[in-house]
Design goal:
Layout lengths: L9 H24 L10
Length: 43
């Protein structure tokens, strides 16, 4: 299998920051609501 390094430009890295923050906030919100007996639909 050919391995190749993929480098991101500074602009590409900056473009990834906001989606990462949104994802982190969504996961934090779900984690706060998760408890035994809570269904995925309720989350």
């Amino acid at each position: 299998m050919l391995r190749r390094s993929i480098y991101k430009t500074p602009a590409q890295l900056r473009a990834m920051v906001e989606p990462g923050l949104i994802t982190a906030a969504a996961l934090d919100a779900v984690r706060a609501l998760a408890a035994p007996g809570v269904t995925t639909l309720e989350l």
